[in-house]
Amino acid sequence: MSVQENHQLSGDFDKVRDDIMAILKMKDYDDGSIGPVLVRLAWHSSGTYCKETDTGGSNGAGMRYESEGGDPANAGLQHARTFLEPIKEKHPWITYADLWTLAGCVAIKAMGGPDVPWKAGRSDFADESLNPPRGRLPDGAQAADHLRHIFYRMGFNDQEIVALSGAHNLGRCHTDRSGFDGAWVVQPTRFSNQYYKLLMKLDWQKKKLSNESAEKGASWQWVAQAPGADEDEPPLMMLPTDHSLIEDDSFRPWVEKYAEDRDAFFKDFSAVFAKLVELGVYRGEDGIARFSHLEKGKYDSAPKKSDSPGAKGSGDGLAEPAAKENEKGIPQARAKL
Question: Which region ranges are annotated with the description Disordered (predicted)?
């Protein structure tokens, strides 16, 4: 059996929320908070969805297995999962899939962001046989066409792409994870619309990155000094995908709107993040998310994958649509956050 039947709709979720709130401040972690990395965990555990094959998404918590957890795009997320493990041990009735997505929503609100609607009932995979292939997460070194390829596959439109990119108000990049380095905004633990304001306002310049970064596929990034910052302070950064939002004729008007209207951004971000964490979740009449009816993605008969996720070959266990997707040569992506 590939799905553990440990899903739960009832339980003291308020206590889980309180316990998540209690661990957010951590002085020895990035900027004194683990909130941003919890948002990234929720994002990456959901952003593997493919609407054409009905595979991937927030159900399953497949990142517990090497085929997904070891994806270069998920580098650093082992820290987020470790931070949440004591809460899972304290509340064993909650699934990992529910805990990871709930933690991201709680963190957004705690850092000054909007309430994000969230529903319980996700199930966990009992093994990795249902994990999606690698290469489905965004690659920050790419441009607008790549963003559309990734996000259209999940069912998002241009406005939603720009709104969801606002998650870059939080956190920072790390050379040893994605190859990129630095924070997007001055206060990376405070949810705001500064990301859009800075994209529009600052004089962004290309900066060549180190050989270590280049080996991870990050050869350059955009940098600019924060307003009022001393010259010796580290600059702010933007990924090539971030800057593409103001280069693209369809994306740019939404950047301008969110830079000018914080309330509109909060409203749209709440809606799109709620949509994100529901990707791949198919609920029965009881509200519980199940997998057994997902015939389109051939989950019912998918055998165990090979030791090289996404590899093409006999007996690799990929559902047919997923195997065809891999044949397109989608690169193994790096972490976007």
Answer: 298-337
